[in-house]
Amino acid sequence: MLATFPDSAVSKQRKIIHVDMDAFYASVEQRDAPALRGQPVVVAWRGARSVVCAASYEARKYGVRSAMPALRAERLCPQAVFVPPDFARYKAVSQQIRAIFQQHTPLVEPLSLDEAYLDVSHSPSCDGIATEIARTIREQIFQITGLTASAGIAPNKFIAKVASDWRKPNGQFVVTPARVEAFLTGLPVARIPGVGKVMQTRLGSLGVETVGQLRELPLAQLQAEFGSWGARLYERARGIDERPVVAFSPVQSISSEDTFGEDLPLSALGPAIIAQAARTWAARSRTERVPHTVVLKLKTADFRILTRSFTPEVAPASQQALTDIALALCERVNLPADTLYRLVGVGLSGFHDDAGAAVQGELFASGPPGASGDQD
């Protein structure tokens, strides 16, 4: 029976588990088609604008990764077996896995079809021992689905997510409160969620490559360099993450963006928009909800941020549809032709539980993306 925890229950130390399925989509394909086992499987449609949804560990040995353009994956691994994604099947397996989670705690926060946070601080399962709960969950997943999962166990979400990747595939790693500082000290700053290549470069200019080195910088300096994000870096360097596990948090928006190495004119942004649309669509495939609005984000060389949005009558049903709308939204950028841009992003918002839901909050009262009326 599913345990319920009193609202007044207070724990001095949280016990958070991050469960991450191992190469989920590819593993489902290999499970259901024995001929694919041991083969470098790439879950993706073929085509110039297609991206990799998942890659088996055999394919990853060649450098193939999710969100990578399918053409690049084919160049890296010519012998790869391309399999078109079957999201209905992946969703069915995901529901089996979530049912297992619910046997151990009601506090489950799914991040996608293949990963979730679990707060087991007050769970009576396995006598409340988080490492045993994680081990039991992984065993149940294998028994019921035939798939393997990895898990990280820690005092908070940030450390648990990093730890779940520590012994992949089919492993688990625990970071106790007493070991948090030692665990983080030698960790590359790139392992902190939100620290991308541009942030790594900026931190590198400050002599920071590891979390331990980041910890040496005072809060005031980090805030001066990175604004509000500096406070977040200060906390993460110390293993601080007070975010609760939210049992239900439906997807509201998905986006992907990139900062260029050098500023570019609007006329040169096409390839970058196509690439970001591909990444956004790959992320969109991980949620069951349906987006209705496409958003184009631009940042000028002088750090002015512009957004252009469009809500079509029919929700974008393909990566091609998303890309076409994002490219068309460039026509709504009414700045001088010689304006340079340092960042571009493509997003999806206006999510509903089904494609037929009423479209709300339409940002364009009439006309296609080329019509007039939006604001910076």
UniProtKB/TrEMBL annotation:
Superkingdom of the source species: Bacteria
Positions annotated as active site in the UniProt record: E115
Compartment(s) where it occurs, according to its Swiss-Prot or TrEMBL record: Cytoplasm
Alphabetically ordered keywords of this record: Cytoplasm, DNA damage, DNA repair, DNA replication, DNA-binding, DNA-directed DNA polymerase, Magnesium, Metal-binding, Mutator protein, Nucleotidyltransferase, Transferase
GO cellular component: cytosol
UniProt cross-references to SUPFAM superfamilies, sorted A to Z: DNA/RNA polymerases, Lesion bypass DNA polymerase (Y-family), little finger domain
Cofactor entry: Mg(2+)
This enzyme's EC code(s): 2.7.7.7
Keyword DNA-binding included in the entry's annotation: yes
Positions of the UmuC domain: 16-196
Cofactor note as given: Binds 2 magnesium ions per subunit.
Residues given in the record as Mg(2+) binding sites: D20, D114
Record GO biological process: DNA repair; DNA-templated DNA replication; error-prone translesion synthesis; SOS response
Catalytic activity annotation: DNA(n) + a 2'-deoxyribonucleoside 5'-triphosphate = DNA(n+1) + diphosphate
Site for Substrate discrimination, residues: Y25
The keyword Translocase belongs to this UniProt entry's keyword annotation: no
Gene Ontology MF terms in the entry: damaged DNA binding; DNA-directed DNA polymerase activity; magnesium ion binding
Pfam families reported for this sequence: IMS, IMS_C, IMS_HHH_1
UniProt enzyme class: transferase
Similarity comment: Belongs to the DNA polymerase type-Y family.
Protein's job: Poorly processive, error-prone DNA polymerase involved in untargeted mutagenesis. Copies undamaged DNA at stalled replication forks, which arise in vivo from mismatched or misaligned primer ends. These misaligned primers can be extended by PolIV. Exhibits no 3'-5' exonuclease (proofreading) activity. May be involved in translesional synthesis, in conjunction with the beta clamp from PolIII.
Description of how the protein assembles with itself and partners: Monomer.
Protein name per the record: DNA polymerase IV
Organism whose genome encodes this protein: Stenotrophomonas ginsengisoli
